[in-house]
Amino acid sequence: MQVCGREATARTPIGSVIGYAAGMKPTLQSAIPVLPAADTAVSLQWWTTICGFEETFRDATPPRYAGIRRGGAELHLAEMSDAALARIVGDQTMLRIRVDGVAAFCKEYEERGGVLHPNGTLQRKPWGTTEFATIDPNGVCVTFFE
User: Fold this and answer.
1) Are 9 and 71 in contact (CB under 8 A)?
2) CA–CA separation, 120 vs 100, rounded Å?
3) For residue 96, what is the domain's CATH number?
4) Which of 5, 59, 121, 132 has the maximum number of C-beta atoms within 10 A of its C-beta?
5) What value does the mean pLDDT take over residues 142-146?
6) Mean pLDDT computed over every residue of the chain
7) Average pLDDT of 41-65?
8) Domain of 98, in residue numbers
9) How far apart are CA 63 and CA 110, in angstroms?
10) pLDDT tens-digit series, residues 74-89
């Protein structure tokens, strides 16, 4: 049997087939959330202009799939063929992004034209974080916190 391009038997430890030492534990490095978009170009504009992210790639112009980054936060935006479904999925999606200097970021966000969620003004929460929340163009609840 072939596993990852190498020959293996039913008794071959999978780690040895793909080049890991016996007993080596995998380490997760990061996660890249993929957010739904009814219109990727509109989402990309909001994330770059209002939130200050930079575009890192796109699949085409106009984009249907794009990547953005700010500091260590990286996100992908994926257009859904059904705009109504994109909104339904967006309304069910929440994203939390850790920020060093969240009060300064909140000020910058508002100066760029960002609107805070009515229940998400900058505040200290009982669980110890300081955070604010907003809604992206697709209904995704985005909370920035430290």
Assistant:
1) no
2) 18
3) 3.10.180.10
4) 132
5) 98
6) 91
7) 97
8) 31-145
9) 26
10) 999 999 999 999 999 9
